């Protein structure tokens, strides 16, 4: 089997994956900023890194997957200006900032469960690691790569660039980056146009602030990931990533902070997911083409013709390689929905296939093709094409047009289990016809029993039967014509 190869944003080429401390792998992804509902672009990133996590586990690696929660220090602009987003949201909704954090953290976790993603090994928060951030800032100041002015601490980019390459992640020279920034005015505290805040002085009205050697304040947005990744994965670890929109500022500044602190390149492989568009246009609320996962599931958005089940949406996302742009449209979603249903029906068919004594198919080669696709930078697009090759074989065997041995059938089941359910993280939500028929007969019996119980005026037991079925996901509705049920 060919080795696992990753496209490294830092080097801009594919490289064989070699963990620092095999079989242990350190994996870090920038998690959500929890002051609003998680949007679909975030979902794609977290689904992609869930896939990476799952495949590394499948290959036998011991993975420590860290996904942070940003719950402080995120200002409205990238120029260290504006209000703290959490405080602003708290004032609008008349809640404590930590109520905002709790509300949207729970919402994020609920959406991730809908998409059947695995929880990370560790999910640290920015507010839970203030001490670590302060200690890192102190060391960067001691190395003369940051400076304090009026209670604010700024990272000195130009001084850092004399020791390291500040634009290494985006392959841009400092002069190019300076040309793209505004000229400092006389009221600016920063020494350089690219300098960014490590610590921000609290205003009198600031709600969330902490004591520090530079006065009461809060950490800048970028320092949190450097501090938390170092604490849980070490000064240098294997894989770090997020959306490609984080490359130019957040991840560039992360590298600078970490190198300034420990004189080491903090990450071996940088991975980035591409952007989402809707009908060819950039997704945004201002354009009216941005919708939340819940709206996508329910179909209650003007651009949606219907709602789509979470697994159909996830399958749609996985059909495109994580580094390629992904365009949402009703036609594309509906085509993916049908494709997903066909794939699940194939698994149901597979469970009832009868084996032959001889075989016309090379299922081992099919399995190797699936591994080859995933080992080529987690290429789910090619993997899914091979899974549909498997589906063709299953349907052909079911129609008696090809022959499969029991070993072939078992290997096809293994391919489904390993790649469809374990690696892609999809769930078979369709009930096959035989199971459906059996369930229908069982429910007819239960409804007859419940009708007899109600006739005997044992309403307590009648309600208990209804409630237990509801807990199991089966809803009973009493009508004049009798009881009906649905899943």
Polypeptide structure, described:
The structure is a single chain. It is built from 16 helices and 15 strands. It has 487 residues and is of the alpha/beta class. The chain folds into three domains: 17-273, Rossmann fold; 277-423, Isoleucyl-tRNA Synthetase, Domain 1 (Orthogonal Bundle); 433-486. It has a four-stranded parallel beta sheet, with helices on both faces. A four-stranded antiparallel beta sheet has the order 5-6-7-8, with helices on one face. Strand 14 (475-479) and strand 15 form a beta hairpin. Helix 4 (130-142) crosses helix 7 and helix 13 (380-398) runs antiparallel to helix 14. It is globular, with a radius of gyration of 27 Å. The model has no long low-confidence stretch (mean pLDDT 92).
